[in-house]
Design a protein that fits this description.
By secondary structure, the chain is of the alpha+beta class. It has four helices and five strands; from the N terminus they run ααβββββαα.
């Protein structure tokens, strides 16, 4: 799976649990953000809520931020680099 279109964003959100790791309470994908020297983590809770957390060298989010399809589209470069490394 690669995110190339808005339809791919919807499919990614639906299949998030299939391509993410599980930590006992949520699915998550942690990707390196070389542009900002840090890690960008996307999370999906059992109720389907998607959130993100950025932890960069110069700043980080205090709380998880809600994520919608526009955010997935915005960060598709980082997500695609992750998706290319997994076997799905």
């Amino acid at each position: 799976m690669i995110i190339r279109s808005k339809a791919d964003v919807e499919q990614f959100c639906e299949r998030f649990g299939d391509v993410a790791s599980w930590d006992g309470s949520k699915h998550y994908i942690a990707v390196q953000d070389e542009e900002n020297s840090g890690t960008l983590t996307f999370m999906q809770y059992p109720d389907g809520t998607l959130t993100a957390h950025r932890k960069y060298k110069t700043y980080w989010d205090i709380n998880e931020l809600p994520v919608d399809s526009k955010d997935i589209w915005k960060y598709r470069k980082f997500l695609n680099s992750y998706l290319k490394t997994i076997n799905n």
